[in-house]
Amino acid sequence: MTVPPHGSSAVTRSRAARAAPAAWITVVGCTVLLMLLGIGVRSDFGPQLSLDATASEALYVGDDRARGLDVLLEVLTAPGLSWFRFVVFLPVLVLLFRKQLWWTAAWLVTAVVLIGPVTTLLKEVFGRVRPDFAEGGARYDSLSFPSGHSSGIAALVTVALILAWPLLAGRARHWALAAGLTLVVLVGLTRMWLGVHFLSDVVGGWSLGVAWSLLTALLFGVLAEHHAALRPTS
């Protein structure tokens, strides 16, 4: 059998051709899920609220938790904070500027910085209050749906994977994906362990973070074979 010339390039172009449609499907799917959960919150949809209440009661570790556990939970939940994203991506942004990858840098800023205001805007739209526990629980003035920590960590991991994917190969991609998913799930769980969010808040936050990061990546042309894409490994 004759091997076509530049076979690896053909495979790369084939994978690139599938990247954008798959990304659009993911954006639409995550957006639909976010909207359905938000509508359920606004309309007091019984099954959703019941599942939220059950999950919250089961996972909340209580106000009388040990000081060490409280510190541990605060550390584990920190990757969902805005300052954490800024610290992680600032060196990457500097590197992109040095390489004159202006479109990629603009996407990074848009995806990482604006996920916070977008989440806050949706909180105001859906207007959900925080979980309320008989033994105390959180007393935050801010609203609950979608979870800002969950959207933040989902955005951070999605952006990191998009940036790293062309530079990784084989098993390294699997490990990166597994590590990213573990971090996203862990931060989401900490929000319920701390008693500050419902299950649908967390899932809605994840959906928002993934949808926002992929949508902006598509609009800025960051995915494979587009003008802002990073060079893949040979």
Write up this protein:
The structure is a single chain. The chain is mainly alpha-helical. It has one domain (18-220). It has helices at residues 7-42, 46-59, 67-77, 82-98, 102-126, 148-164, 171-193, 199-220. The radius of gyration is 20 Å and the shape is globular. The relative contact order is 0.18. The model is unreliable at 1-14 (pLDDT under 50).
Write the layout of secondary structure elements.
Blueprint: H1 7-42, H2 46-59, H3 67-77, H4 82-98, H5 102-126, H6 148-164, H7 171-193, H8 199-220
Helix pairs in contact: 1-8, 3-7, 4-5, 5-6, 5-8, 6-7, 6-8, 7-8
Describe this structure in a few short sentences:
The protein has 234 residues and is mostly helical. The protein contains eight helices and no strands. Helices cover 71% and strands 0% of the residues.
Q: Strand portion, in percent?
A: under 5%
Radius of gyration from the CA trace?
A: 20 Å
Poorly predicted regions: 1-14
User: What integer is the average pLDDT?
Assistant: 87
**H/E order of the elements?**
HHHHHHHH
Q: Give the proportion of residues in helices.
A: over 70%
Report how far the terminal alpha carbons are from each other.
24 Å
- Total domains: 1
Alpha-beta classification: mainly alpha
What's the number of extended β-strand segments?
0
Query: What about the largest sheet?
Result: none
Shape: globular
Tally of separate helices: 8
